[in-house]
Amino acid sequence: METKQTVLSDIAYLIIDVPSHIMPFLAYLSECQSKGLNFDVYGPQNIVTSVLNNLGKNHFGFDELSFGKGPVHPALFKSTYQSFLQTIPAIEAIWEENKKKPKLLIADIFATYAKSLATKHKIPLLVLFGSYFVQNVTGDWQQHVEKATLVERDESLVPLQKEVEDKYGVSIKSMRDIIIEGDHNISCISKFIGDLVTLEKENCTYVGPALRDESKCEIPGIDSAFLKDNDLIYVSLGTAQPNMAGFSCYESIIEALKDTEHKVLIGATRGKAEELIAKGLPKNIIVKNWVPQTKVLEHSKLFISHVGAGGMMEALSTGVPVIAIPNFADQPINAGVVEKLNTGRWLKDKSPESIKKLVEEVLANENIKSNCQKYQKIINSEASSGKEMFIEIVKSLMK
Fold it and tell me: Which of 35, 95, 237, 321 has the smallest count of CB within 10 Å of its CB?
């Protein structure tokens, strides 16, 4: 990309093409700006434009970091190799032309190139974890981390792998090699949840969620009567491409809940909403390709979810019980946490009969309702302190 003379910020935020890793930290990044801690954004052009267009002083987009529409894992490995071979030289050219390097790098856990930049230029590195600190996971939870991190690159990418090894001395063969750890690491999961899964480590801090404010958002195309009494069953089984493996469960959920007294709202992406609508829907079920999730949860009595970390925290923050249907990565851990906290149940038999039975069991369970209310209060009390911790950590690394 072409560089141009500009005034660079003291903080550089380096990202990859995974919006779900970025969204949980938008409020923290906004807090940085409000405190006068300006930052520049470096990442895939499409994400820099669409997700972070209102945050960051300067935006630098790199097409080689975009995943495209193919399977996620091959795309992640390819963009990781390209981030070394193309993005690092481009970023260094920007710094050289403007005669300034940042005093702090903030990076996504999968922004492997950030670790190399930090090491080479002796810049402190703060890494953002959208979920647990995978390097510290303990006990029975480890099996889920191992399954996710042992995924290897495609054989077709071996030439790129070798080129990165030759030029940077970095060997990236599996997902474990992509994940980075910084001088300090923060997660937007609450500490009481993180402590269930990981060992404490001095440079790893669970700051809790800084939740999106969707109070002014409208739920598009839904009659207000459907939202009355906050009595919805809300269903969302994920947006990232790997979650599509679990999308077949939408049909089973519709079959289980059709013609019941329950009002059901389904949010389904990647063409699934249109597919379900085309098949015809029962009168008590509405399907949309997008809804403001936190806003919808405020009207819900139950959340049927793939339990990504963000969705799990949003459910807890609104006091809504969860039926967990995990697919990959940290989702099985989150399903286990839901059961450990007794804020819902893990659905393992995905037949319509089992779904209908579990829905009724969870809705009738007073202990689950009580625990949801308890953890809602804890999480909401963390809202301001988490932002304060984030700012303190940023400032301490810049000294």
Answer: 35
- Closest to 121 in 3D by CA, of 130, 129, 113: 113
The pLDDT of residue 4 is 55
Is 224-381 a CATH 3.40.50.2000 domain?
A: yes
Phi-psi region of 77 (alpha: psi -120 to 50; beta: other; left: phi over 0): alpha
Residue pointed to by tokens 């792998």 = 161
User: What is the reported pLDDT for 66?
Assistant: 93
| pTM value surpassing 0.90 | yes
For the ranges 18-27, 182-191, 330-339, the lowest mean pLDDT is seen at: 18-27
**Strand partners for 251:** none
Total Cβ atoms within 10 A of residue 45: 17
Query: Could you say which of 2.102.10.10, 3.40.50.2000, 1.10.10.10, 3.40.50.880 is the CATH number of the domain covering 11-209+383-397?
Result: 3.40.50.2000
Residue 1: predicted pLDDT: 47
Distances (CA, A) of 338 to 307, 313, 327, 371, 388: 9, 10, 15, 11, 27
Read off φ and ψ for residue 295, nearest 5 degrees: -60, -45
Which letter, b or e, does each residue of 161-184 get, where b requires 16 or more Cβ atoms within 10 Å of its Cβ?
beebeeebebebeebbbbbbbbbb
Tens of pLDDT, residue by residue over 35-60, are 999 999 999 998 998 888 789 999 99
How far is residue 320's CA from residue 11's CA, in Å, rounded to a whole number? 37
Q: Return the SS3 of 165.
A: helix
User: What stretch(es) of the chain map to CATH 3.40.50.2000?
Assistant: 11-209+383-397, 224-381
The pLDDT tens digits for 312-334 are 999 999 999 999 999 888 999 99
User: What's the average model confidence in pLDDT over 365-375?
Assistant: 98
Give the C-alpha distances (Å, rounded to integers) separating 272 from 76, 250, 286, 363: 24, 9, 13, 27
Write out pLDDT tens, residues 61-79: 999 999 877 678 899 999 9
What single string gives the DSSP state of each residue in 210-238?
-----TT---TT--HHHHGGG-EEEEE--
Backbone angles phi, psi at 216, to 5 degrees: -95, 0
